[in-house]
Amino acid sequence: SSVSNTTWRQGRQMLRQYLQEIGYTDT
Amino acid sequence: RINQQNPSIREIRQENRELKASLEDHQRALELIMHKYREHMHHKILNSKV
Amino acid sequence: RINQQNPSIREIRQENRELKASLEDHQRALELIMHKYREHMHHKILNSKV
Fold first, then answer.
1. At what angle are helices A5-21 and B2-49 packed, to 10 degrees?
2. The pTM is what?
3. Of A25, B19, B27, C36, most Cβ neighbours within 10 A?
């Protein structure tokens, strides 16, 4: 699987960024 | 061998839990984003009608 | 005991692979949706300027 350990853990960081971008401040 | 194996079981189990938690976060984020997206589309339709 | 333990390791490893694959799908879906969303917002800003 190409999702090495670190990338899927960075996924959460991406979520936070996306949610803030569309206007959800409470992560 | 059993002891050698055990830490790996613990690690795999730990990763398993983290993966499941992360998947839940992704599903919740997807719902939130889709909700926001529908809201925007709804406004857009309303405005275009006005 | 080792044999008894083994299948569980294999199963957990298998589940981990599936979880990672599913997480990857979610991340790709989120990227697509965010891209669409940004495009949509961009148009909205352009239209409001027009």
1. 20
2. 0.74
3. B19
∠ Cα A6 B7 C20 (to 5°): 35
Cβ density class C22-50: b for 16+ within 10 Å, e for less: bbbebbeebeebbeebeeeeeeeeeeeee
Q: Across all residues in chain B, what is the average pLDDT?
A: 84
Min Cα separation C12/chain B (Å)? 7
Within 2-21 of A, beta carbons closer than 8 Å to B belong to 5, 8-9, 11-12, 15, 18-19
Minimal-distance CA residue of chain C relative to B34: C33
C20 touches chain A (CB under 8 A): yes
Residue B21 Cα distances to B24, B50, C9, C26, C40, angstroms = 5, 44, 20, 13, 31
